[in-house]
Each structure stands twice: as structure tokens, then as C-alpha cells.
Fold this protein.
Amino acid sequence: MTPKLLAKQLQTGIKGFSKFWSRKDNLSKRIDGTFTYCGLLSEFLLFLSQDFEKIKRESLEHFFQWVEEALIEKDEELVPSLKTCFLDNLVHQEFAYELSELYGDETSRFLQYWDRES
């Protein structure tokens, strides 16, 4: 998977994210339009924090299934960004508890470890 492919999947799988990602004040995109996993996942978390109530539960279920699979597969480029730029910051969001039943074992294990360390 590449950052571009992940962006496409998020834009097609989560209603409203395409418009959010395409906005002109998106600081995670470089002038040439490229971006990193970290930038994309940070923007996605910002989107979730603003539109959480509007997002279909089914879409969130699919997303967290993907998170779990990504953590298990241990892609050397994706996983550090997923942990640092999304999961580490997710725990500070008010809605994180509402999502907890969607977390898989690896996600829960990481978040519990992170919580003990803070």
C-alpha cells in the first residue's frame, strides 16, 4: 500500500473525507500534491474529530478492521505512522471511548500500552 492508495480508500470508504482531504488549507499535502502516511492519517483524525457523529458506523468498522490488519502485517513505513500520527492522538479524542468496541486485539494492546506509559 502507498499513501496515495490509502487516501483513495479513505476517500471512497468514508463519506465526506474526500471533500475534507481536498480542501485548500490541507497542510498535509505538499505543493506538488504528494503527502506522507503521517500527514494523511493526521488529517483523517482531524476529520473524525469534526464529523464523528455524521460517519456511518459501518464505515468506521471497516476502517478499524483495516487498522488491525495493518498492525498485524507490520509494514515498516505504514505502521509507525499509523501508531504515531493516528492512534497516539486518537486516545486524546472525546469520541475514542465510543470507538473502543471496534478496536481489534492489536489496536487495543497498543492503546493500553500507550495509556500505561503516559
The chain has seven helices and no strands. Helices lie at 3-13, 17-21, 37-51, 57-73, 78-90, 96-99, 105-117.
